[in-house]
Write a structure and sequence with these properties.
5 helices
Length: 105
C-alpha cells in the first residue's frame, strides 16, 4: 500500500492527471446538477447561486476523487496487475486511477 501512496497520491503528475480525468468524466453530471441548482434555487441572488453551484461542484469532485483513490487499490490486488500498473508512466497511472470510477458515473 505504501508503494501505491508514493506512486500515485504523492506523485504530482499522477494525482493531477487523475483529477483532470475525473473532472472530464463528471462534466455532464456537474453541468446538469449545478445548472438545476442555479436555475431553481429560490430567492437567492445570482452571486449566491453561483457560489452554491461552485461549492456543489467542488464537493462532488473531491468525493469522487476520494472514493476512487480508496477503491482503486482493490482492483490491483494481484502481483501481475500491480507490476503492470507500477511500470506505467506517472501520467498513465493517473489516467488509470481517474478512469476507474468512470463506469460508475
Amino acid at each position: 500500500m505504501s508503494n501505491y501512496f508514493s506512486k500515485v497520491i504523492f506523485d504530482k503528475v499522477s494525482i493531477f492527471t487523475a483529477i483532470k480525468v475525473i473532472i472530464s468524466n463528471l462534466l455532464w453530471p456537474l453541468v446538469v446538477i449545478v445548472g438545476l441548482t442555479v436555475a431553481f434555487s429560490g430567492d437567492f441572488t445570482w452571486a449566491m447561486r453561483v457560489t452554491i453551484g461552485i461549492g456543489i461542484m467542488l464537493v462532488l469532485i473531491i468525493l469522487t476523487l476520494l472514493v476512487t483513490l480508496i477503491v482503486f487499490p482493490i482492483s490491483i490486488r494481484t502481483e501481475d496487475k500491480k507490476q503492470e500498473f507500477y511500470s506505467k508512466s506517472s501520467a498513465d497511472r493517473g489516467k488509470d486511477v481517474g478512469e476507474y470510477i468512470s463506469g460508475w458515473i
